[in-house]
Protein: RNase H type-1 domain-containing protein
Organism: Dendrothele bispora
Amino acid sequence: VYEGECVGLILALHLLSEQEEVRKVSIWVDNTAAIQATTSDKCGAAHYLLDHFHSLLQQVRGRHPNLKLRICWVPSHTGVEGNERADEEAKAAACG
């Protein structure tokens, strides 16, 4: 789950990097360990993913210098619009 959330953070930044003139973004994550890891440079589980996250974040900040980015915790994505669809797509992808 932790690594999956880290990959989700990377994918969110990738999508953000392709947008024009973005000023405010919130990324919602249901794994507090993944959120805490985004603010740390310590080695740990899935560190290679966090290295990639930080590298991509620098690129995003270069493209969007005034960006206000929030990474927020949401318990099990409760109340997040589109979550059910995202869960269905993830399950379909996992099944091949």
The chain has four helices and two strands. Residues 47-63 form the longest helix (17 residues).
